[in-house]
Specification:
The complex is a heterodimer of chains A (154) and B (128). Chain A is mainly α and 154 residues long. Chain A folds into two domains: 2-82; 87-151, no CATH class. Chain A is built from five helices and two strands. Chain A has helices at 2-35, 54-82, 87-106, 111-120, 125-140, and strands spanning 108-109, 145-146. In chain A, strands 1-2 form a two-stranded parallel sheet. The N and C termini of chain A lie far apart (78 Å). By secondary structure, chain B is α+β, with helices and mostly antiparallel strands. Helix content of chain B is 24%, strand content 35%. Chain B has helices at residues 6-23, 49-53, 92-99, and strands spanning 33-37, 43-47, 61-67, 71-78, 81-87, 105-110, 116-122. In chain B, the strands form two sheets. In chain B, strands 1-2-6-7 form a four-stranded antiparallel sheet. A three-stranded antiparallel sheet of chain B has the order 3-4-5. In chain B, strand 3 (61-67) and strand 4 (71-78) form a beta hairpin. The longest helix of chain B is centred in the first third of the chain and has 18 residues, at 6-23. At the A-B interface, helix 5 and strand 2 of A face strand 3, strand 4 and strand 5 of B.
Chain lengths: 154, 128
């Protein structure tokens, strides 16, 4: 009986220690999140480790996850707003896509096509980035080869 | 069996060897040039700039391009095949490679979507 009690106490102590470690990590993450949000002053997080139980640990973990998700959504929204292409850029990207489709159909990408895309997407860094990514996929899948190895990326 | 007569000569020879040893070149080898892709287009390239330059394929090359810190393109040609990936957040080694000796070893991998997924580099006296 006494042995079982000791075992129980030891298990409880181990559980509290594990929770303490988890909460210390969660606290660091919360502090880091606050630090990365200048508009929101960091709020103090007071943790009394021995008194904490699994419910508090879960609550803090949920808070950390919620904060991470909110920040991710905010960044995604900001990125979407700043990358909204103009009508002219959309038309240029469509033209570049057609050029790539034609090149893939032939299995070759000519110097003139690369120069053409370079001009078409001259004012659209994001359009160029996406075109290059699609070109990389086509190259890796061996769907085309360039006429001039030295002139490969628009 | 070594005699006492032979000992001074042996010691002299050893001292010469020791001197020669301290000045001899260390281990060196080329990081070479290898690239491979899976059926979905994902893959990797390993080697060094000097390795690509010394490849049997005389048109082989490997290049890391970047437009500022926000965008990079890797392109390589080896044995008639082309390999490429792009990155919207090039890792630190990307820029370090530009300033590193051409013998610096690197490995870059990419996903089936053409996105660079990892880049390792290793500079060392052993690379030539």
């Amino acid at each position: 009986m006494a042995w079982a009690g000791l075992e129980h106490e030891r298990a409880q102590r181990a559980r509290v220690e594990a929770l303490t470690r988890n909460l210390a990590e969660a606290r660091e993450e919360i502090v880091a999140l606050h630090a990365s949000e200048p508009s929101t002053p960091p709020s103090p997080v007071v943790i009394s480790a021995p008194a904490l139980d699994a419910r508090i640990a879960d609550a803090i973990a949920s808070r950390v996850l919620a904060a991470s998700e909110a920040r991710r959504k905010g960044e995604a929204a900001m990125a979407a707003q700043s990358t909204a292409p103009t009508d002219g850029q959309l038309a240029a990207r469509a033209a570049a896509d057609r050029t790539l489709d034609r090149a893939i159909a032939r299995g070759r990408l000519t110097r003139d096509e690369i120069r053409e895309v370079r001009e078409t997407l001259a004012d659209d860094p994001l359009g160029r980035a996406e075109f290059r990514r699609q070109l990389a996929v086509a190259l890796n899948q061996k769907k085309l080869v360039p006429d001039d190895p030295r002139l490969l990326m628009p | 069996m070594m005699t006492f007569k032979a000992l001074p000569a042996t010691l002299a020879a050893l001292s010469v060897l020791a001197v020669a040893d301290s000045g001899s070149a260390g281990e060196s080898y080329s990081a070479g040039a290898t690239c491979s892709t899976r059926t979905d287009g994902s893959g990797s390239c390993s080697g060094s700039f000097s390795g690509f330059l010394a490849a049997a394929d005389t048109s082989a090359y490997a290049a890391f391009w970047n437009e500022g810190a926000a965008y990079g393109v890797f392109v390589a040609e080896l044995n008639g095949n082309y390999y490429s990936c792009t990155s919207t957040s090039p890792a630190e080694p990307w820029f370090a490679l530009s300033a590193a000796p051409p013998t610096t070893s690197f490995t870059i991998s990419w996903t089936s979507a053409g996105t660079c997924s990892a880049l390792w580099m290793e500079a060392g006296s052993q690379f030539k």
